[in-house]
Amino acid sequence: MQAVIVRRFGGPEVLEIVDVPAPRPGPGQVLVRVAAAAVNRIDLSTRAGRITEAGLIAPAPTVALGWDVAGEVTATGPGVTRFAAGDRVIGLRDLLSAAGTQAEQVVLDEGAVAPAPAGVGDAEASTLPLAGLTADRSLELTGLRRGQTLLVTGAAGVVGGIVLQLAALRGIRTVAAADATDEPLLRRLGAEHVVPRTDRLGAAVRDLVPGGVDAVIDAAVVGIGAHEALRGGGVFVALVAPFAPPPLRGTRVVVQEVYADGARLAELAALAEAGHLTLRVAQTLPLAQVAEAHERIAAGGVRGRLVLLP
């Protein structure tokens, strides 16, 4: 089967599509025929070697690309009880797995897989696992209750957009930081207020929410500039550890960590199936254009996910 790998770290030019042996599911695992695999920023970090350097995945002669997937179960290993051949699923590779999802087939642990949302296309469904679990975990870390306020940076991105939608479902009031051209999109996703991402971000938010917001989810890695919008004693959720600001004015700064969680993913899939989550695809591409996908993501400005169709 074909799979995307790197043998050395670097720019998009190091990406290779190679023939590798078809995988077989072991105990507690499912074999998935990949219908769609989203390309995330973590793929760029994996390709560049930053994930390996951080100790999040083990060094290896070749590193497989791809973290989340939509597809169909074609075989199951011993002990699998929740899925059978023919089931349509979505899933997230975990950090201990050497198998990437940007391939024709992938083996995943049963606990990392959930039923795919009915009525949602494979490309759209493939954007949910990593971004959805990241957004859900980030919102959970804020501890916000109905009526409290949240600033979301990078709100027009896939993670930020899901945060807005989940927050709206939970009655949390949101301020979205993004380009002015994205305001119509952000309103549709549930943003109560939209502010431009400028050097005056903190002041702009405080003009809308005197005293500052109760929490910040920093999906755009703004750092201290977003922290200025936070009230004393509020919660700042950083998505990237090196860019987490210090806990000033009695605030609490936490770094979200996302894990493969099939049960939580099933809850998110149910929301998507019910029409409560909009899953955004910018464009679908064949596996052969994976380098182009990396280049476009690095250049910025992509709204929605680029998705590979093996």
TrEMBL record:
Coiled coil: none annotated. It comes from the Bacteria. Residues 10-308 form the Enoyl reductase (ER) domain. Gene3D superfamilies: Medium-chain alcohol dehydrogenases, catalytic domain, NAD(P)-binding Rossmann-like Domain. Pfam families: ADH_N, ADH_zinc_N_2. GO terms for molecular function: oxidoreductase activity. Signal peptide: none annotated. This is Crotonyl CoA reductase. It comes from Couchioplanes caeruleus subsp. caeruleus.
